[in-house]
Fold this protein.
Amino acid sequence: MTKPTVIETRKVTKTYNVNAAPVPALVDISFAAEENSFVSLVGPSGCGKSTLLQILAGLIPSSSGEVLVDGMPVRKPMPDKIAVVFQDATLLPWKTVIQNIEFPLEVQKVPPRERRECARAMLSLVGLSDFAERYPHELSGGMRQRVSIARGLAQNPRIILMDEPFGALDEQTRLKMGNELLHIWSRTNKTIFLITHSLTEALFLSDTVLVMSQRPGRIVDVIKTALPRPRTYDMIGSREFGEARNRIWELIGGDEPTAAERVGL
Amino acid sequence: MSRPTLVRLIVIVAILVVWESVRELNLIGPLLLASPSEIGAAFAKSWPQFLTAFQITLVEIVAALAIALVLGVSVGLIAGSTVFMSMVSGPLLVSLFAVPLVTWYPLFMVWFGIGGASKIAYGVVSGFFPVAINTMNGIRNFDPQYVMYGRAIGCSPLQIVARILFPLALPSIIAGLRIGVALVIIGVIVAEMLGSLRGIGYLITSYRNLYEIGGVYLGILLSVLCALLANLGLSALERHFTRWREMQMTQ
């Protein structure tokens, strides 16, 4: 039995006008992701990854083509269907952790008792129940990002869009956070769409990796990772993993992997 | 009594002793400096007059401050709400802030009379600009991802400003208010000195005209007291609203 499609894009194109001349940023982006799948998008910096994410989130309009979530066209933010996790956790610094998770529910006018319960449940899902009354600045970068994920989950969306959520973390924390994200994801039925510049992260976490070209961004390859779940760190050292990484590397950069990339950093 | 308090007390007593003896020994003439005992004598002689003046000035300052705060924050929020608005109003506010306001005071007297209204109006104009400019800068200098986040969870534009940008800008607004308070106090007292029949500024001018230097110094001391009280109130406000920011700083 095939799972229902949660998000689908049809020939999404974005063109900017710079000094009255059209400059294409994204060309014919078409892909689909089914329920409870984990999709990553990798590509060289400046290729329009974040632009695509903002279009998917309904934050900016596309120039042509359409985005469908649950079969409904996305024309504006849809907080009940789409949650966004940004590179900076963007937690509200004057609110405690639990208040931050409640905030999107408050905006949606969910009654206080209900939203407090929901926030507590999400907080325990990300393993931060002991930190409910702390302020964001009292947490580490990784913990802040976990709160940000809990906050997204509290919206009970169909899909969570993540824009380089672990980009600001050090490499070790980053891999740990990725693993943590897999745990959280496996306990929900959400679809995750993750933008990352780390090929290792993309391959380690995803079912599908979309590879984007340099600007104007188009999808040049779709790689299904064959790794079994649950994923373990030693898979990163396997031959298949290395081959997949090298293939993506050639697609997006055409350069040799750096020493760091070769050893899996 | 703790050691620092004790030392502070000794320093204050020493200053008073030196101050008093400078006058006793007539090292500085009576028209230039009033000794502590002469200030005390002025207070003993006309304290009801000074108390009334102090109350009038304090009310004018508080009123001017409240109006400057409301106007400044409102204008700053509007001016900072979009890139376009801040490009239009930013340079305007900053250059108006640079105009020497005191040259306008005669016009304020024509518009508002020589009573309290012209003092409050002048105080408002003095304090308005730093509050408005800091509010505008405060809501412009944040991570644009906050606005995107607000939109992504379905906030209306008004909710984004009120629930996200305004609280984020609060530390900056309060910093503007700090400058604003100083300027409002100066504004109100200068206005009283230039043309008025009431208030501390008026007493300072009239005692100077009578060559009663004790009264002049008493007036100056009372205006310092106004500034101290205003700053005390402001610090309480700051502690209340920006606890999270202070905690962030000390981390």
Chain B has one domain: 64-242. The radius of gyration of chain B is 22 Å. Chain B is about 85% helix and 0% strand.
